[in-house]
Amino acid sequence: MRERKIHMSKARSYLIGFAFGTFLTGTAVLLNAPKSGKELRTDMKEKGEEFKASLTKFKSETTDLKNKIVNLSKEGKETFTTLSSEVKDSMGEWKRSVDPNLKQLQKDLEELQQKLEEAADQMNKNNTKES
């Protein structure tokens, strides 16, 4: 507990020293400035206005960028939804067009398999007769 108080006391001392040093430095700069107080205030006001204008421009550009990202996201979602729907429709159409041919192929394969089995049976019968 005692160490904590000492640590806080040191931090407070440093903070007071920093604030006092900053004040003295600022005063020294103003007293030794090559410009008059009026010129210095005018320059500071101009720089402040330039900084404010820069911040306003940055805010505007950031808002524009955000809006563009939101719009791009919406467009991407719409495009993906449309594309997904079109692919689904195309797959359904392809399946409908292939389905009759597939059924015919299955029927032809069954007939071919049946004929091969009949031919194999006939060959077996011929081989047994000759033996």
TrEMBL record:
Keyword Transmembrane helix tagged: yes
Coiled-coil region: 55-129
InterPro entries: Desiccation-related_membrane, RRF_sf, YtxH
Regions that span the bilayer: 12-31
UniProt keyword terms in alphabetical order: Coiled coil, Membrane, Transmembrane, Transmembrane helix
Annotated SUPFAM superfamilies: Ribosome recycling factor, RRF
Pfam families in the cross-refs: YtxH
Entry superkingdom: Bacteria
Protein's UniProt name: YtxH domain-containing protein
UniProt organism field: Bacillus taeanensis
